[in-house]
Design goal:
The protein is mainly α and about 850 residues long. The chain contains 32 helices and 8 strands.
Length: about 850
């Protein structure tokens, strides 16, 4: 059919993208990546620090391009088996991308934002290449789960809202009659005043029209019709000329790139057609995925029926041959089942005994001393490198692609449905395991009968032999228990008797589990910094002149540190953020805490909601102002934190938001009564990083601890600052928007509010006057000014910049002292301008 033909043509495009991505991937692995190629490693070791940074930056950009190709191919490929293989490559590339970011941060002196302007110029690429895309599969693959959770959350919020409304009294019942009469009188007087003003205006217009008519009659001009025609012609010609001139001016501005092109009509808009085509392909994906799952079940039964008997016969012959040889060599029948069944060779047992003996001769104390000396020598060499898990994943995925898909003929598979032979290959290992279990049971019975027959022939009692076997079994079990008992003890669960559904509803009712706002990282509008490396060179002489991160860099950092690990279980399990360097070793970071710091209105809370929305995550709010008065008592904070982390771990992905994070780490009691903000600190640290026992969260759990802070410099004491700094493995600074970012922000907000293509001069003027205002303040000005009612009246009253300026004057600017304090604290975390002891904040407060 025509649809199948178009699907085949589109699939060829995305297959080509996949092929290009895999060819580029193997080139990077074999030639450039030092973790995969020994030649590249030796070449990089001979370079100086600047050249090494350039090499890793180039490698990072190449992997980012491969990531973009594979992500688009995975998103639009409709073949279910191809999508699974693309996903393996995609997870490996994402993981390696995160590892390279850590390498670049280390080469950049620990600064989490790095500028790659010169590298982009050398590669002849634009800055948009550095934009890290958010994979669409993170939300789409869990679409049903998210829809069900959304309905459940709405129902719970509605139920608790109705309960709160029942407890409140109607304010209309409390109103006095005199107050009601005053309100009615004021409204009626206002209505009458408006009516009189409209009457006076209409009377004046009638009088003016009568005066003009009388004046025209008194003049009595005989050339009235000709003069009127001339006036009409002049007006029409002038209007037509102005329209033509304006059209020519607009076309010229578009041609030279000074103005955007006019919008496409809806009928022929290629973007609309692209969205419709992608929607159709998504439906085909779901259909082919359902067919593939049905085929797995059907082919599993077919392989079991057709190949199962041959598998069983072959396994039975191998095991019989094995225990007969064992009987001839040892003089007795073996215990069954063994840990691993292999074809034994005559010299296997002797070789194994020799290896065991050689290992036993080694003195563990001497080995321990050697290892200890080696560890002491390595203390000054820095933390050990990360294991090459993602490199191995990419190599395996490339090998699988080259073996399975590179030379496969797909010309006849127009509809891009599953391949039956590949389905059989995928289910065959499961069938083999099932057949092996059946064979083990049969061989076990057979060996038991032979053992009993052998014992009778030897004149021994069968019961005694059986008792010896049981004793061995008990001994083995005892060993297993001993090994399990050595594990770390889990923290005590105060909610062990409560179900997960009850805890979920309880958190919703207490306002801890929030509904995520439908925002994305694209709403964090801002431009790239095009002179970053030039400013970095100035910062080499004066570190305090370190350039602020651009909004595009912040988006990329949030995507790589927060969204990508949460979105994939395969990436999170081996994510480099799971551990953090500490001296000569790496320590685990459960929850991978990330801190967003910036002045009020810089977009911290919006980014938190964007992370949760992009991952389809639950959002738990542990902000002190939100938890005040909830879970009171001595054990209340512990129960609160334990419940949140338990539910977050059970329902991944999850984001635990700690707003006003600095107040949680400030020691001391709260003035004025009420719950102290730091009451959850002890429970939080003991559950995430206990001194004894196991932590409630593991590094592989898809749970993110996300903190926000508007006054991090409030942690003045050295003890508070060190604890606050060490808890978060990454600190991201959100500065005020610069001129370029403000231009993009004003344009984006005005277009979203309903203005079509705002004037560039007006936008530049607004960007100039809004200096020292945060992005949140600018968004609030647009929200208050460009209301839906105002958009409806644009034809009658055109938009003017003065409307926004008057509202902007009512907003609170960010003062230079606050901005400098925030920037100074951020520099302090990077080791810039650090004083040996913070000046006595506690003493002066006393």
């Amino acid at each position: 059919s025509a649809v199948s033909f178009l699907a085949a043509m589109s699939s060829a495009t995305f297959d080509l993208q996949w092929k290009e991505g895999m060819v580029e991937l193997i080139d990077q692995l074999e030639l450039c990546d030092p973790q995969s190629s020994a030649a590249a490693r030796s070449r990089i070791e001979s370079l100086d620090a600047t050249e090494q940074f350039q090499h890793f930056a180039t490698l990072y950009i190449r992997y980012l391009q491969i990531f973009r190709r594979l992500e688009e191919s995975y998103d639009q490929t409709v073949h279910p088996q191809k999508r699974r293989d693309v996903r393996k490559s995609l997870d490996g590339v994402i993981g390696r991308l995160l590892e390279l970011r850590e390498v670049l941060v280390e080469k950049n002196g620990g600064v989490p934002f790095f500028n790659l302007d010169e590298v982009l110029v050398d590669l002849k690429l634009g800055p948009e290449v550095l934009e890290v895309p958010v994979p669409k599969y993170i939300v789409e693959d869990q679409g049903r789960t998210l829809a069900e959770r959304e309905r459940l959350l709405d129902a719970l919020l509605k139920r608790h809202a109705s309960r709160d409304e029942q407890g409140e009294e109607d304010p209309a019942v409390q109103m006095d009659i005199d107050e009601a009469l005053k309100i009615i009188q004021a409204n009626e007087r206002g209505r009458q005043g408006q009516q009189r003003a409209e009457g006076v205006k209409a009377a004046r217009e009638r009088e003016a029209w009568e005066e003009r008519r009388r004046a025209a009659e008194e003049e009595g001009d005989e050339d009235g019709p000709e003069a009127a025609a001339t006036s009409l012609q002049a007006a029409w010609r002038g209007s037509a000329s102005r329209r033509a001139t304006a059209l020519m001016r607009d076309e010229e501005l578009v041609f030279i790139g000074m103005a955007p092109p006019p919008p496409f009509p809806k009928e022929g808009d290629p973007r609309l057609r692209e969205r419709q085509t992608k929607a159709r392909r998504k439906q085909m994906q779901m259909q082919h995925e359902a067919e593939y799952r049905d085929a797995l079940v059907a082919q599993d039964a077919v392989v079991y029926e057709t190949e199962g008997p041959d598998m069983k016969e072959e396994m039975m012959d191998q095991l019989r041959d094995w225990y007969i040889r064992y009987r001839e060599r040892e003089g007795k029948f073996p215990d069954f089942p063994p840990e691993e069944v292999e074809k034994p060779m005559p010299g296997d047992a002797a070789e194994g005994a020799e290896e065991k003996g050689a290992d036993a001769k080694k003195d563990p104390k001497k080995d321990g001393k050697k290892d200890g000396k080696k560890g002491a020598e390595d203390d000054g060499e820095g933390p050990p490198p990360l294991p090459p898990h993602f490199i191995n994943t990419m190599k395996d995925s490339y090998q699988e692609w080259s073996d399975k898909w590179q030379h496969r003929d797909e010309r006849l598979n127009f509809a891009q449905r599953h391949d039956v032979e590949l389905v059989r290959q995928s289910v065959r290992p499961d069938v083999e395991l099932r057949v092996r279990a059946e064979v083990n049971e049969l061989i076990g019975r057979e060996l038991q009968n032979l053992q009993e027959e052998f014992e009778r022939a030897q004149g021994k009692k069968g019961k005694k032999g059986k008792g010896g076997k049981k004793g061995k079994g008990k001994k083995g079990k005892g060993k297993g228990k001993g090994k399990g008992g050595k594990g770390k003890k889990m923290p005590k669960d105060p909610t062990a008797s409560l179900s997960l559904e009850y805890l979920y509803e309880q958190l919703v009712g207490d306002g801890i589990l929030k509904k995520v706002d439908p925002v994305s990282l694209e709403d964090f509008v801002g431009s790239y910094g095009l002179l970053g490396q030039a400013m970095d060179k100035l910062a080499e002489a004066d570190p305090t002149r370190l350039p602020n991160p651009s909004f595009a860099q912040i988006r990329s950092a949030v995507t790589e540190y927060c969204i990508l690990p949460l979105g994939s279980d395969a990436v999170k399990r081996h994510c480099p953020l799971n551990t953090a360097p500490k001296g000569s070793k790496r320590v685990e970071k459960n929850g991978t805490p990330v801190l967003l710091c910036g002045v009020p209105g810089s977009g911290k809370r919006m980014l938190a909601h964007a992370v949760a929305s992009s991952c389809g995550a639950n959002l738990f709010d542990l902000t002190p102002s939100n938890t005040e008065g909830k879970y009171p008592g001595k054990k209340g904070p512990g129960d609160l934190v334990h419940t949140v982390l338990k539910v977050a771990k059970a329902l991944p992905p999850s984001v635990v938001l700690i707003g006003e994070a600095e107040s949680v780490w400030v020691s001391g009691k709260k003035k004025g009564g009420g719950d102290p903000p730091n009451r959850i600190l002890k429970a939080l640290t003991s559950l995430l990083a206990p001194k004894k026992g196991a932590a409630l969260l593991e590094p592989s759990d898809r749970v993110l601890i996300l903190g926000t802070s508007s006054q991090p410099y409030a942690c003045e004491k050295a003890k508070d600052y060190n604890a606050f700094r060490d808890f978060f493995c990454k600190i991201l600074y959100l500065p005020l928007p610069d001129y370029a970012a403000r231009c993009k922000l004003w344009t984006h907000l005005l277009e979203r509010a309903g203005l079509d293509r705002p004037c560039l001069d007006d936008v530049q003027a607004l960007a100039r006057v809004s200096d020292a205002f945060s992005a949140g303040a600018i968004a609030e000005v647009v929200r208050r000014t460009i209301t839906p009612r105002r958009v409806e009246r644009l034809a009658a009253k055109p938009f003017s910049v003065h409307d926004l300026v008057s509202q902007l004057a009512q907003q609170e600017p960010v003062y230079r002292e606050d901005d400098s304090a925030m920037r100074g604290w951020y520099h302090k975390t990077l080791g810039i301008g650090v004083e040996p002891e913070p000046e006595g904040g506690g003493k002066e407060a006393k």
